[in-house]
């Protein structure tokens, strides 16, 4: 019996020692396969919500000058493409030989009618004096008065005809309606005009605009006067500042978007209409839970975002719902809590439950 007890005790001790050795071996093997990772704690930070979009720069004012008379030859276009023009400057002259001849005739008619009126006024005054002295019959005075009234009416008609021709003559010159640049010429001297086709185009390049779409979620946040910035490929290191000046009051029921305009001062004419622009409008800021953008992974096929957090030395997969992106940070709306240790390097080697070794930790 004593021998049996000794044997049993020996087996128990041997088993315990074997278990300890086995556990140590497993721990050594586990340590050998731990994936080294770097983590950054999820934290609350101030994030700025912004609207990012693209568009084409357009002149704030874009005017095409159309002739009001057809079939007239262009005599002169007084500016070339790219030239500065001033408001009121004569840009286009049309062949006005015919109307100038008619103007000469109309002026002669006015002069003749005025002379006739002047003569009849003298005759009327003379006869009125004679009539008062009873030296002339009343019928003769009435006749001269009637002739004078008819002459005055003809003078008025002649002056009206002259004025109409003078107004018509203005149509043979096209003037710049504003300061700007001559952006295009559609006709050359010698071409005939057509009232349905423009002759020149003038734009204001010292102040441009970008027309962009505003989505339904962003529509309540955007306001006139908000600051915005614009970047173009021609000047990759420059940011051009502007302000939102136009917002349509309703959304398009087909696209569920509104239209807005960012107006950008361009005093040095560095920007030109037609350039492709990247636009950002700051819509406001708030405190939100954020993580490093580098932590994000996406499921193949669906693109669903997820991250790994470290819990008790192991990787835990967390699906996340994202919000605003801001430089190297991204807002997390669901899936994480403040202080969660999120893997930012080494996550591509992880899967659920894999043992990890934190070699670098920030934000703890």
Automatic annotation (TrEMBL):
Q: Does the keyword ATP-binding apply?
A: no
Q: Tell me which residues make up the YknX-like C-terminal permuted SH3-like domain.
A: 303-358
InterPro entries in the record: Beta-barrel_RND_2, RND_pump_MFP, YknX-like_C
Which SUPFAM superfamilies does the record cross-reference, listed alphabetically? HlyD-like secretion proteins
Going by the UniProt record, its keywords in alphabetical order are: Coiled coil
PANTHER family noted in UniProt: HLYD FAMILY OF SECRETION PROTEINS, MULTIDRUG RESISTANCE PROTEIN MDTA
Protein name, please? RND family efflux transporter, MFP subunit
Species of origin reads: Desulfacinum hydrothermale DSM 13146
Q: What is the lineage of its organism?
A: Bacteria, Pseudomonadati, Thermodesulfobacteriota, Syntrophobacteria, Syntrophobacterales
